[in-house]
Amino acid sequence: MIQINNLIKSFEETQVLKGISTTFEKGKTNLIIGQSGSGKTVFLKCIIGLFEPTGGDIIFDNTALSSMDLKTRALLRQDLGMVFQGSALFDSMTVEENIMFPMRMFTNASEDELRDRANTAINRVNLIDANHKMPSEISGGMKKRVAIARAIIMNPKYLFCDEPNSGLDPRTAILIDNLIQEITQEYEITTVINTHDMNSVMEIGEKIVFLENGLKQWEGTNQEIFKTDNEAVTKFVYSSEMFKKIRAIYIKESN
Amino acid sequence: MLQKTFGKFTKWNVLRNLILREIDDLIIGSLGIIAFISFFVGGVVAIQTAINTDNPLLPGYLVGFATRQSIILEFAPTFISVIMAGKVGSFITSSLGTMRVTEQIDALEVMGINTYNYLIFPKIAALTLYPFLISISMTLGIFGGYLACISGGFSSHADFIEGLQLDFKAFHIVYAFIKTFLFAMLLATIPSYHGYFMKGGALDVGKASTTSFVWTSVTIIITNTIVTNLLLT
Q1: Distance between CA atoms of B219 and A23, rounded to whole angstroms?
Q2: Is the confidence metric ipTM above 0.95 for this complex?
Q3: Chain A contact for B24, CB < 8 A?
Q4: Among A167, A212, B40, B191, which is disulfide-ready with B92 (CB 3.0 to 4.6 Å)?
Q5: Which chain A residues contact residue B111 at CB under 8 A?
Q6: pLDDT in tens, A80-139
Q7: What's the pTM value of the predicted model, to 2 decimals?
């Protein structure tokens, strides 16, 4: 579980996060949604430690980030898995080497053990015949799968995904969403996904946090988002006619 | 940046492979261009010296002497380093810049890796072999000058060799390698800084490479002036 208490982040004069408090639960896919510029990426980068918060605290399973010394923080980082928007695979390594990389850095496993673990992760994300390919030789969807495999190879407690299905076709996007949700439940991981994809919200949003102008405007589940009358949320989520119709049908059916 | 580069070292078996890869990219990969430029520029230096000193009152060994001094004192250490600022420096900046733009550096940081040590230290370690490249440049430059002189009939074998040996000061070699080592550190650190801390997108990678080349060249020339003043005057 990750608890966020009054998180503030400023860049010089500009306050991007204005005091966000929420909880991301274990074994659930927690989604952060909001318009471009709402502070989603800064929020995620504060949680994973790429940005130092200006104020507030982030609590990982009862241990506050602010109270951790450098050694504890380094150990915590080994419990974090991250899937970047552009996958962030290392260009100079093959798919297999990319996946083995965290283990090679932090364990003393033999080459055979590394390969076994990498193959387990590769099979888990359904990557076929890609072990010895370079990242430039595989498709966007496969890159996401490699990034997920690399993120889970160390059996992380926390998985973070920044727009994991951006740039993917709708079918592949749903497959990636479902894969993340399956992994979250299977390994009991606390997963936090940064997205503005409404399909993801409807499909896997077990907990949704809506940000606007650096503030949390609403939080709830993908069932509750159909019923909410929060103006900011409805403006954002139901901006298309299709989603307005889906909402109307859902409300009609649930009544 | 330098403090972090030499702090919290990466696992040795990983670091060793990174250093070997950088030696291959930065040193071995530069051998061809350095050999080519040194050989032909050495030849041109010798020919130009011969053409401009054709007064019969000047001694025949002058061409060999001037070629040796030009190549050992300035051409090999300084001008090859400026050329390397373009080749090696741009490579370092663009590769780190691309890693920054594509979030590969962020990915390393999230894993808890000291990215300064992982990415920059191997480049500094590899470039400690840079004086080896410059010694090849010196040898081939002088050899190019010798062949150009003999084949073009500008000087005799005996005169050229006499010029090469005349008034030879071993300290000149020491001076050349002291500044070569300093240039190697500039070649590793300035482009790394520009690549590591770059912001923006793909276009900015190109801009960062150009800026890095300009600053590395300027710093090499200024350092050359200071070191020459300190060691030779």
Answers
A1: 52
A2: no
A3: no
A4: B191
A5: 77-78, 80, 101-102, 105-106
A6: 999 998 889 999 999 999 999 999 998 888 999 999 999 988 888 888 888 899 999 998
A7: 0.87
